Amino acid sequence: MQTVLRYLLMLRHIPKQPQKIDVNTLRERLTEQGIDVSVRTIQRNLVELSEVFPLTTDERCKPFGWSLLADAPLLPLASNGSAARRTNGNGSLHSNGLSGETVEIELECDLALQPQLEAYPLNKSQKLTAGADTFTLTADAELSTELLVWILSHGAQIEVIAPASLRTEVAQHAEAMYRYYFDQ
Q: Could you give the 3-state DSSP secondary structure of residue 14?
């Protein structure tokens, strides 16, 4: 599981061409997120990821830089089309309440996410508005499992402002997660 998490975090930090990231910078970013691995492990992981994802390396000068191909599509974290399932705290499962309709979402985001969301927008309707300590993201988006997983993957770095149904869904997942860790 640790390897899968590391792969996902690595992919999150690799920019699209023409931007690039070198292995040492990628290692620093992983270390900031609690993942401590060697430069050699990251190099091996990047080679493995490049067999599945549209990654490329710029070897014209050292340190080599890694990036996603400029025309690479954004890949969803979950796309099997099935409804997300979560436990309600006592072990029984129930589906999420996402409607699948397209609505305008409003998210308050930590400033640290801004470079990532500028490089990898949710879609063409995305707008970012700077604030003092945060920024607001607005976009038209489908209320889907993929959107929910994406929001939850950012933890406390994103707060859902609207719509209320999405905010409630995220809060219910956070509450269920809290029960796992603190109501033992």
A: coil
In what helix (H) or strand (E) does residue 48 lie, and over which residues does it extend?
helix 39-50
Single out the residue of 57, 33, 31 nearest to residue 43, CA to CA: 57
DSSP-derived secondary structure for 101-114: -EEEEEEEEEGGGH
> Which has the closest alpha carbon to 41: 55, 30, 51?
30
Exposed (0-12), middle (13-18) or buried (19+): which is 86, by Cβ within 10 Å?
middle
CA triple 42-45-48, angle to 5 deg: 155
Angle at alpha carbon of residue 57, lines to 51 and 61, rounded to 5°: 155
What confidence tens digit (pLDDT) does each residue in 4-55 have? 778 888 888 888 888 899 999 999 988 888 889 999 999 999 999 888 888 8
